[in-house]
Amino acid sequence: MKIKVLYLASLREQLGKPGEDLEIPPATSTVAGLRTLLMARGGPWQTALAQGKALRVAVNQEMAQPTTPVKPGDEVAFFPPVTGG
Amino acid sequence: MPVRIQTRDFDAGAEIAALRRDNPKVGAVASFIGVCRDANDGTAVTKMTLEHYPGMTEKALEKIIAEAKARWDVMEVLVVHRVGELKPTDQIVLVVVTGAHRGEAFAACEFIMDYLKTRAPFWKKEETPQGARWVEARVSDDEAAQRWEPPKSSAA
């Protein structure tokens, strides 16, 4: 299925791109599954998305959990904890 | 529009006047302005760049405002947050809450700031004499936001 993935702030710099359109296997049906899929690219993907790193994920611009479903057409954003205000 | 994300500066006096104009029911106006400092964690800061997640930022702030209005008896809320390049002494964020009485207005204003700091997708990158660095989230900000969580039920 096709989804849109965004990498924001320090994550964009670590991964070297602001986002991408991705075709992912239907079995990758959760945020945790997508994270694992991206980590398997190795290099900066492995380190920047590693378990234990403080990371936030939004699905369709709503804060998500590892178990949040990912569906065709979704916009999934990965970013560090927020620091506005 | 109760939420505005902009690069330009804001005039708190003009914003407050517009928010409470012609409303004789308003008895209290609480406001907060966040300002760019010239140091952070013991290091000089010469400049900062604020970025956000367009679309989600507005939604997140509108949700925070809706929750504040549900919890406290307040009237109007305005949140203005700047993005882009800012220098020390520049204004960053404005929150204004109007209501009939100060207690509710103060509480709602503080709640909105605490939730903004932990839930609205903004990120700061600082320029320091040692180079640029992304600001790390603070545990104290999480603790400030957690004060507002409804008490957990003691029932198992």
Features:
heterodimer; A: 85 residues; alpha+beta; 5-stranded mixed β-sheet; B: 156 residues; Aldehyde Oxidoreductase, domain 3; 4-stranded mixed β-sheet; 4 helices; globular
Short characterization:
The complex is a heterodimer of chains A (85) and B (156). With 85 residues, chain A is of the alpha+beta class.
Task: Explain the overall architecture.
The complex is a heterodimer of chains A (85) and B (156). With 85 residues, chain A is of the alpha+beta class. Chain A has one domain: Ubiquitin-like (UB roll) (Roll), CATH 3.10.20. Chain A has a 5-stranded mixed sheet with strand order 2-1-5-3-4. In chain A, strand 3 and strand 4 form a beta hairpin. The radius of gyration of chain A is 12 Å and the shape is globular. The model of chain A has no long low-confidence stretch (mean pLDDT 96). Chain B has one domain: Aldehyde Oxidoreductase, domain 3, CATH 3.90.1170.40. Chain B is built from 4 helices and 10 strands; from the N terminus they run βαββββαβββαββα. In chain B, the strands form 3 sheets. In chain B, strands 1-6-8-2 form a 4-stranded mixed sheet, sandwiched between helices. A 4-stranded antiparallel sheet of chain B has the order 7-5-9-10, with no helix packed on it. A two-stranded antiparallel ribbon of chain B has the order 3-4. Chain B is globular.
Q: Fill in the CATH topology of chain B.
A: Aldehyde Oxidoreductase, domain 3
How much of the sequence of chain A is in beta strands?
25-35%
> So, CATH architecture of chain A?
Roll
Backbone shape of chain A: globular
Biggest beta-sheet profile of chain A: 5 strands, mixed
Radius of gyration of chain B: 17 Å
Q: Which class of secondary structure composition applies to the elements of chain B?
A: alpha+beta
Q: State the distance separating the first and last CA atoms of chain B.
A: 43 Å
Subunit organisation of the chains: heterodimer
| CATH classification, class level of chain B | Alpha Beta
Number of helices of chain B: 4
Task: List unreliable stretches of 5+ residues of chain B.
Answer: none
Percentage of residues in helical conformation of chain A: 10-25%
Q: Span between N and C termini of chain A?
A: 37 Å
Question: CATH homologous superfamily name of chain A?
Answer: Beta-grasp domain
Q: How many structural domains can be distinguished in the coordinates of chain A?
A: 1
Molecular shape of chain B: globular
Strand order of the largest sheet of chain A: 2-1-5-3-4
Low-pLDDT parts of chain A are: none
- The sequence of SSEs of chain B as H and E is EHEEEEHEEEHEEH
